[in-house]
Protein 1
Amino acid sequence: MEFIRNAWYVAGWAREFDQELRRFTILDENIVMYRKADGTVAALEDRCPHRLLPLSKGKRIGDDIQCGYHGMTFDCDGKCVRIPGQSNLPASAYVEAYPVHERHDIVWIWMGDKEKADPAEIFDMPEFDDPNWAVHQGDALHLKANYLNVAENLVDPAHVSFVHPTTLGNSSSENVPVHVAAEGKAIVAWRWIRDGEPIGFFRKFGGFTENVDRWHYYHLYTPAIAVIDFGCALTRDAIAEDERNKGNRIFALHFMTPVTANHTIDRWMHIRNTALEDDTAAETMDELLRGAFQEDKDVLEAIQQEEERPQKRRPIRIAIDKGPMVYRKRISEMVERERTQDLATAPTPAFVYHD
């Protein structure tokens, strides 16, 4: 499988990193990561170039790593700084170092061309720093599923009625049309369910018992970030679509890290505009979301098993697949751009372009 390499991926929550040497697998590559003395995170190829012992089985010498086999030592830029028993340090004695950036207690890693690693391109939202919103990191959900299928699930409001009938959906939304916009940076799929019974989530978190207007806006950013804007308000309040902050509004953020072709880690978190002073609210929401995301996990892992078996015929697509189809097309285009080198950005006068 070809992964998108020129992108920022979440390596982990900030709390997952300390002074210990820890192995992480991202895009089918093993990486050793640790906090340096200054508190920043280093990321190196987890394989000594001599006999291939993982450096994570070695030990730290200050901010450097000493291989546990023959003592070759590498600094946090991947350069070999010591080979016991010899004074010369060959240029080929190095390990790859990966750009890392930490923001909002999230550690991001760049797996592609280093010169393209711009921290300004890291995903952000104004609500992270807004005191009117509560930010809470959830879990790292491991799925035995391809990240493309996981991402498609996160731009698909239509599945909620059937996969999450007691948590995030109910039967009142089964035939409500889904809108899709694919012109911007994110693919967006959304729908409103007007004057309907509150779903289980908002019965427990919000105490809604009357009929409500509720919404789902699914934003999918290639290659592997999704933001689900969902919430509800009492039907009698008659809020407009651009007045969602007047209701109980929640952002569920999903940062998908492809581990291998059939293993994805979905680190999820939530941001809410309600119950800001309630210390138990985050834990209550975690419990509710864990149940819903387990339902997704069961479905996606079952799909993965079937995809790995011989297929008798081609899968079909139906009307609700517009968002996933655009996503797959964008991923294919990104793969193709990375597969080739564009040398036509400054064409010679022999070629004159008119479009």
Note: The longest strand covers residues 248-260.
Protein 2
Amino acid sequence: MADINISYLNGPDVERLALTDDEILAAVEQALHAQGSGQTVIEPRVHLIPETSAKGHFNVLRGVVKPLGVAGVKVVGDFVENYRRGLPSEMAVLNLFDPETGMPKAFIDATGITEMRTGAVTALGAKHLARKDSRILGHIGARGTAYWNVRLLDRLFDFDEIRVHSRRPESRNGFAERLSRDLGKPVVATEDWETCVRGADIVVEASRLHEPAPLLKTEWIAKGALVVPYGTMSAVELSLTDIMDKTVVDDWGQCRKGLPFGALRAHVDSGRLSEENLHAELGQIVAGLRSGRESDGETILFWHRGLSLSDIALGHALLEKAARLGVGQTLRFA
């Protein structure tokens, strides 16, 4: 049997490769287009809960992106109190495989990938679903994915005003300072949810709750806004979907009844959101099969649970760039 080798990219390798904003957006958009065109395989994520969901759990995401010739499995831990130990709340590994033979291709530190791909899906959702003249962003949450939400959204919209909020003052203030420095514009840390959200053109809710709590009030949402909630534990009111002209998800298979967690879990389980009244999956819109925003007056909700396809696409982009630049290691597998 011929030797089998795999590529290994650790965290410093991923940082050194430094995918640009445009490289990140292009890779994830390619995966969304493939999904919308029926050129992918997605299996709903599964969870491993070591003790309680309030403390933390593992997500296992699986998929195939046929145009890239890659299958992948990502395991990501989501542990709310990790900041007390000086650790990220989310840490992940990505395994890539040849979907024709099953042979392993790569092992990648996917902590940064998880943050980048989440931000890219948020931004690409806004590209198709937010008003083109959106000037104010209100962002709840300051975890790792939050940075890329704001950075990539601002890349597309160049906001006049960015507001951020999170539960801990040191977290929200540090988050605002980092964004102000990196984006080269003022970012305001608000002391409460309402000040952050009310009147914003785009609202992103990426909170870290131990249990569901309706902290984001429907009455704060401006007509014509785009709302993007994706916290593991819901922070929205049941009435939120009542004011929406369209509701879009990343993958209905991960949103349907019977699955745990998610910002709109109660809306699905109660029948307020179903496959029948869902407008589209984002991939269908990216592929041109369904409409995105059709008028400035539409109020739209985009709920994304997290796609294995975007992890796989970014892993593939990192491998290609690593090969060009000579970054990473080759490990003997068999």
Note: The CA atoms of residues 128 and 140 lie 21 Å apart.
Protein 3
Amino acid sequence: MASWLPIVAIIFAVVLVVGPVMWLKPSSRERKLADLRQRAAMSGLKVQMQSLPASQGTGNAAVYFSQWRNPRRLQTGWGLELQRMSHEMNFDDVWDWRNGREAPESAKLPLKELLSMLPADATAVYANDSGLGVQWRERSGDNGLAAVQEALGSMRPVIEEAIRQATRQEEGTGNREPRG
């Protein structure tokens, strides 16, 4: 029995060293998400983690932002969030405004088109200083990333111009009448 004691001690020591290392090793899902986010970043999207909309429970999900080309004079600070159920009072079926803060009227039609292009696991659309972002749970993987990239790539420029505030000169209020 005494001859087995050193072998058991060595095995125990190896387990003590290898166990925590294996515990820290990322899971296959974590590796896939890291790869997905890396590819998004390489294509020009900025990825941030944000809380899920209240209707979706607790937790966080990634928001993929397409940065504004010219961020001056944009009416941002609004968002659309996925609701639990469809209602005629919502903006678009199951999508409604976050905290009641709506986008400008000129952006509503392009936003509906954007929503129709998103993957099924999308949970929110945000317009803030970071750009136009789509929050999604990333369950749809490569297909979802392709849908988000296509939606943001084609609709961000349209929505950016739709939410741009006109300057006073463009509105025609900057001209003063000559005094006589």
Note: The chain has a mean pLDDT of 87.
